[in-house]
Design a protein that fits this description.
It catalyses: (1S,2R)-1-C-(indol-3-yl)glycerol 3-phosphate + L-serine = D-glyceraldehyde 3-phosphate + L-tryptophan + H2O. GO terms for molecular function: tryptophan synthase activity. Belongs to the TrpB family. Pathway: Amino-acid biosynthesis; L-tryptophan biosynthesis; L-tryptophan from chorismate: step 5/5. Keywords: Amino-acid biosynthesis, Aromatic amino acid biosynthesis, Lyase, Pyridoxal phosphate, Tryptophan biosynthesis. The chain has a 6-stranded mixed β-sheet with strand order 3-4-14-9-10-13, with helices on both faces. Helix 11 links the parallel strand 9 and strand 10 (about 270-280). It has 2 domains: about 20-60 and about 105-220, Rossmann fold, CATH 3.40.50.1100; about 65-105 and about 225-410, Rossmann fold, CATH 3.40.50.1100. It is globular. With about 425 residues, it is of the alpha/beta class. It has 16 helices and 14 strands. Bound molecules: pyridoxal-5'-phosphate (PLP).
Length: about 425
């Protein structure tokens, strides 16, 4: 039996208007409002329906491959202990989301939203994508369930993410290059929102992270929370207790919210989110919305955003295309101000070092996104006592990043 969280819980949000404190909400055109209310009602009904949960669970087991393992990274732990003071050096564990079908955590959320679209009788799915990982996950599940799939992708991203564009096409999706703005992820999301209002009757908008107007941030978090629920149970089975710390990378913040949410009221658990610092916060070339941005409104919610002096949305930069979103989910903005989660940032070069170390010591080539979080594990773990249990969310595998890393390292493939 699950007990309801206490009234002062960190897990109670959002309120009925979709607010996490002053963040979140639904700042959308009047024309979009009926669709969003419809979606909210459908999601509330699905959440309360045991048949929906049972169907989700079955697909998570047989199609996605859950549960993902909780794995103790022993050689990494030893390596970090060699540099630590006596009695220090945390035991590091990886939550292996990279082993999911399609290679990342994205599929957990997409499966949930596609199941909801089917329940609502919507045969046409639209999605935005940046690096293409969310687009691939959406195209995959649309193929699996025989749904029409249209993916909006900035023209710049289409050009630099050719393998993922080809994957989406193989899976039967239509990829629409977006030529407006900076021709990247935020423009793709604007275009998808425009499509949605135009094709009200048959279309479901599948958002890829804990952003957008309410109910998306809460709904995506709920679908990703399987990561944290499994981690809690697995650590209980392995060590008979809670972990001492959690750490995850942040693009929009969905893999992080998924790991963190079930632990928010466990006050003994330290929680760290890691943003992309690109060339460094001071350089202005980064994607760290909390460390280097300020509150504003984008894509239907109030949150921390990268902005220039006039309040225009600034371009995000990161070595990792999956992290270069100029905003962050509103629940993170709130957890930051409430000081429940500590937000750090990792530069491109720190990330590359962690990427190499993980590959050599653990035989796991991580995606560049979680390599950001891993680079902070290299700082944090040696300062913790030897009985400290630290869990890193290994959100995706590095296959997609091989050409880019090879180029940076000066290797011709
Ligand atoms: C997309 C992606 C991310 C960033 O998205 P979040 O919503 O912040 O989780 C992180 N890791 C991987 C592997 C991704 O594909």
């Amino acid at each position: 039996m699950t007990l309801a969280p206490p009234p002062n819980s960190f897990r109670n949000g959002p309120d009925a208007r979709g607010r996490f404190g002053i963040f979140g909400g639904r700042f959308v055109a009047e024309t979009l409002m009926p669709l969003i209310l419809d979606l909210e009602a459908a999601y509330e009904a699905a959440k309360a329906d045991p048949a929906f949960q049972a169907e989700m669970d079955s697909h998570l087991t047989h199609y996605v491959g859950r549960p993902s393992p909780l794995y103790e990274a022993e050689r990494l732990t030893e390596h970090l202990r060699a540099k630590a003071a006596p009695g220090h050096g945390a035991r590091v564990f990886f939550k292996r989301e990279e082993l999911n079908h399609t290679g990342s955590h994205k599929v957990n959320n997409v499966l949930g939203q596609i199941m909801l679209a089917r329940r609502m009788g919507k045969p046409r799915i639209i999605a935005e994508t940046g690096a293409g990982q969310h687009g691939v996950a959406t195209a995959t599940l649309c193929a699996r369930f025989g749904l029409k799939c249209v993916v909006y992708m900035g023209a710049v991203d289409v050009a630099r993410q050719a393998p993922n564009v080809f994957r989406m096409k193989m899976l039967g999706a239509e990829v629409v290059p977006v030529e407006s703005g900076t021709k990247t992820l935020k423009d793709a999301m604007n275009e998808a929102l425009r499509d949605w209002v135009t094709n009200v009757a048959d279309t479901f908008y599948c958002i890829g992270t804990v952003a957008g107007p309410h109910p998306y941030p809460a709904m995506v978090r709920d679908f990703q929370s399987i990561i944290g629920r499994e981690t809690k149970q697995q650590m209980q089975e392995m060590e008979g207790r809670l972990p001492d710390s959690l750490i995850a990378c942040i693009g929009g913040g969905s893999n992080a919210m998924g790991l963190f949410h079930p632990f928010l009221d466990d006050s003994s658990v330290e929680i760290y989110g890691v943003e992309a610092a690109g060339h460094g916060i001071a350089s202005g070339l980064h994607a760290a919305s909390l460390s280097g941005g300020k509150p504003g409104v984008l894509h239907g919610n109030r949150t921390y955003l990268l902005q220039d002096g006039d309040g225009q949305i600034a371009d995000a930069h990161s070595i990792s295309a999956g992290l270069d979103y100029p905003g962050i989910g509103p629940e993170h903005a709130w957890l930051h101000e409430a000081k429940r989660v500590t937000y750090l940032s990792a530069t491109d070069s720190e990330t590359l070092e962690a990427f190499k170390l993980c590959s050599l010591l653990e035989g796991i080539i991580p995606a560049l996104e979680p390599a950001h979080a891993l680079s902070k594990v290299l700082d944090l773990a040696p300062r913790k006592p030897a009985n400290h249990l630290m869990v890193l969310n290994l959100s995706g595998r590095g296959d997609k990043d091989i050409p880019q890393v090879a180029e940076i390292l000066g290797t011709r493939l």
